[in-house]
Amino acid sequence: MLDQRLTRLLNADARLLLDGRLLGLEREALRVAPDGHISQIPHPVPLGSALTHPHITTDYSEALLEFITPPLSSAEEALRFLDDLHRFVYPHIGDELLWTASMPCILAGEASIPIAEYGHSNLGLMKHVYRRGLAWRYGRIMQVIAGIHFNFSLPDEFWAAFQAQESDHHTLQDFRSESYFGLIRNLQRFGWLILYLFGASPAVCKSFLDGKATTLLEFDDHTCYGPYATSLRMSNVGYTNRTEKKSGVNVCYNSLPEYIASLTQATVTPWPPYTQIGIKVNGEYRQLNTNVLQIENEYYTSMRPKQPPQGNEKPTLALLRRGVRYVELRSVDINPLEPLGINASQLKFLEIFLLFCLLAESPPLDAEERRIIDDNQMAVALTGRNPALVLHRRRNPSLPLRGWAQEILEQMQPISEWLDLGAERGPYTAALAEQRETLADPNRTPSARMLAEMQASGENFFCCARRLSEQHRRYFESRPLTEEQIRFFAKTAEQSWREQKNIEMTDQLSFEEFLAHYFAQK
């Protein structure tokens, strides 16, 4: 099917079909105090309102910055914008560092992690209470893991041509949505490859483990690691939705209606342990509700279908009304060896990979295949560089990781050539070749390079990550923004504060009424 689809697309005006594709980046970064602990200083005012700023906000913690690029037409443009954001932020955070790793700095227990604040509006309070709920449900420590999200969409011209070639008679919106869901299912099947090639979190500070038992090895008195680990962030050491599996609610990706129905079910199904926590205790909200998921975004997955909400619209309603507009890949670790956490070659590889996932056959997922997918991801996250690792496949023989990865990369070759049409020096083919070399030599993977860096320098995880963070700070500070760029970001920050104030001034409802209206949306 992949070959047939590629042949039909290449016989059309293939390059033009992809010209309108868009990509964007979201990069999380902890602000870290000079002593190596998570910052206790509130979100700096010159950076703008975390509630309304389009490009600089906070994730779980007041200290966990999130940089967001707009949708752009190339990897280079996205990285330039992300670079500008870092260069704007650094002069406003004093002697703090932006932590350059997915796994966090030194943590002094749950109480050391400040929950993000978003002002006095109902919307801002809802965002804060939701994060309080996460703390009660999972603990705060898990919430300060950082990552990179890669947003990707294809233009209507592509979808119209693809639909005609598939002889599909649904609306274009429905065809696009169901095609994106096929992409998501394949991303789940083959997403272990991203963990292997881009995983960069093989070690963790013991303060993150907070005294919990672990099968990880000791690097020294302060660091644990997996000798073959690729991404502890994406393993059971990192961020997972344990309750979703325990409760028997399974989010289904076989179609948009099934996805919406199953995700909605999780947001309306009470879960006894959360009922025991309570909602409002002694006049203070602990969580938004007692359901398996407070809101849809609580469900953590490697890829989300996305449609920007209008106003305070629920994400599932936005999808129901307007279909899938783009997909968000969430399984990419921050590479501590890169100032921005990722580079252009990686982004180009991700474009090839997502097109492969879109065009390859993608049958529905059943319970057995979902279990296989989870097992493969966990195995690669914890032991991906073990040469003896074998992965499992539904209705196909099991294969060593390297053999299966070679199959996938070979199938991606014509897609890289398609993307290179009209380009000089074949950047996409070169990006694919680079990952082939990484597959052939596991020592080239970011996870292996990070452990090698620690061993060569004699530094544990914290010391190594802090040194790299300081190195990256010097890199950004050596290239100050132009006056025009500074004015642009300063003006955007000022506008965001005006927007937050306007939201606060126009609130008409009590917080209880606001929540009731939000959850009553249909």
Structural class: alpha+beta
CATH architecture call: 2-Layer Sandwich
**Percent of residues in beta strands:** 5-15%
Mean pLDDT: 95
Our measurement of the CA-to-CA distance between the termini, rounded to an integer number of angstroms, reads: 38 Å
Proportion in helices: 40-55%
Radius of gyration: 23 Å
Number of strands: 14
The CATH topology? Creatine Kinase, Chain A, domain 2
User: Count of DSSP helices?
Assistant: 20
Shape: globular
Q: Tally the structural domains.
A: 1
Instruction: Report on the biggest sheet.
Output: 7 strands, antiparallel
Low-confidence stretches: none
CATH class descriptor name = Alpha Beta
Please tell me about this protein's structure:
By secondary structure, the chain is α+β, with helices and mostly antiparallel strands. The chain has a single domain, classed as Creatine Kinase, Chain A, domain 2, CATH 3.30.590. 47% of the residues lie in helices and 12% in strands. It is built from 20 helices and 14 strands. Strands 1, 2, 3, 4, 5, 11 and 12 form a 7-stranded antiparallel beta sheet that branches. The protein has a 3-stranded antiparallel beta sheet with strand order 6-8-7. It has a two-stranded antiparallel ribbon with strand order 9-10. A hairpin with a 5-residue loop joins strand 2 and strand 3. The longest helix has 24 residues. It is globular, with a radius of gyration of 23 Å. The model has no long low-confidence stretch (mean pLDDT 95).
